[in-house]
């Protein structure tokens, strides 16, 4: 194994709650331009878009063997569900937060599948996901004919700053099981802070400059699962000093998704919602894909309605189970006038939408 000083490339894996990806930088590039970093563009064929990250979703076949990851896993599972062939498959998504706040994490702890019907050891799911990202990165390097070998790489795996030591150790062991030995565990906001140190973001006399000694700044890392807050100061030797201990909580974007889910349950009722999820897995995935796009695109400006496409199967399930229509029920609740459900569309007044961000339901 090469010494750390002999490494010619740093490869970092960002294993997120909702999205994951990787980036890498060659030593000679870093010495000339610290911000020269390469990453991968992940195509989502079903949505016609390209992203620097891919969903933290993983699909295993009925034999508990790896099948696919990311957008591919979402699309494959949706296709299986459309044909009602998904029930023996193992589909996991957004499982990272099970490590948050755990005082002691047993190595045999298990994580439930997306449908809640099956479970597998968490260590296996985490390690298989990390292995996929590691192997994909190595494949990218090989396609570029870089000549980089595994021993030439210094691996970095980022974790939330507010995680405790057992959670960090769990991730380290998962990475080792994935075939990564020479590993640095980096706190997510600290990695972001180091990058900020090299960014030309201060206006000088003639151009933009990087942070100078004495400058203090806050890094607010708003992720899918957690929000981390750190405060750093640039020292005279250009190193960074942490002025306050990292703080934060489980306040990430998934909390907004949970608020939307609770709104749907408030409208249709928990029994109908669970019945819909069990019988229409593909539609469930599509509904939250749609909400994700609306959530990202919401600016808070103007007074227009937010329109979210809702699967017709949810309305059909409601009518079959209750003998009523959603429109009739909405008209009798405090949500009347704030929400409008017409066909396959849910329209929400823009002044109600921010309630999702605070996990408070419109009343």
From TrEMBL:
It comes from the Eukaryota. The keyword ATP-binding applies. Keywords: ATP-binding, Nucleotide-binding. InterPro entries: ATPase_NBD, Hsp_70_fam. The keyword Aminoacyl-tRNA synthetase does not apply. One of its GO terms (molecular function) is ATP-dependent protein folding chaperone. Belongs to the heat shock protein 70 family. This is Heat shock 70 kDa protein 12A.
């Amino acid at each position: 194994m090469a010494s750390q000083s002999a490494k010619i490339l740093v490869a970092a894996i960002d294993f997120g709650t909702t999205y994951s990806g990787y980036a890498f930088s060659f030593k000679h590039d870093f010495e000339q331009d610290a911000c020269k970093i390469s990453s991968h563009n992940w195509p989502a064929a079903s949505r016609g878009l390209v992203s620097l990250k891919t969903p933290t979703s993983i699909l295993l076949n009925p034999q508990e063997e790896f099948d696919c990851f990311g957008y591919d896993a979402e699309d494959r599972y949706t296709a299986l569900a459309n044909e009602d062939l998904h029930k023996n498959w193992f589909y996991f998504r957004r499982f990272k937060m099970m490590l948050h706040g755990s005082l002691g994490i047993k190595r045999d702890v298990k994580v439930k599948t997306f449908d809640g019907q099956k479970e597998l050891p968490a260590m296996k799911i985490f390690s298989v996901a990390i292995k996929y990202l590691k192997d994909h990165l190595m494949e990218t390097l090989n396609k570029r004919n870089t000549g980089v070998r595994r021993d030439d790489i210094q691996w970095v795996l980022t974790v939330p700053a507010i995680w405790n030591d057992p959670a960090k150790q769990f991730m380290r062991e998962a990475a080792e099981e994935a075939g990564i030995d020479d590993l640095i565990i980096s706190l997510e906001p600290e990695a972001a802070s180091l990058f900020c140190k090299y960014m030309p973001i201060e206006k000088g006399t003639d151009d933009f400059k990087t942070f100078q000694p004495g400058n203090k700044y806050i890094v607010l890392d708003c992720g899918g699962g957690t929000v981390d807050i750190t405060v750093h100061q640039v020292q005279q030797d250009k190193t960074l000093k942490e002025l306050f201990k990292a703080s934060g909580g489980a306040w990430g974007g998934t909390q907004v998704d949970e608020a939307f889910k609770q709104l749907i349950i408030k409208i249709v009722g928990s029994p109908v919602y669970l019945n819909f999820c069990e019988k229409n897995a593909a539609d469930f995935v599509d509904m939250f894909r749609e909400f994700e796009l609306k959530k990202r695109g919401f600016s808070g400006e103007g007074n227009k309605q937010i329109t979210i496409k809702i699967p017709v199967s949810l309305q059909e399930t409601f009518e079959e189970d209750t003998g009523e229509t959603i429109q009739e029920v909405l008209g009798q609740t405090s949500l009347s006038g704030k929400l409008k459900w017409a066909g396959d569309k849910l329209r929400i007044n823009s002044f109600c939408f921010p309630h999702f961000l605070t996990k408070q339901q419109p009343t």
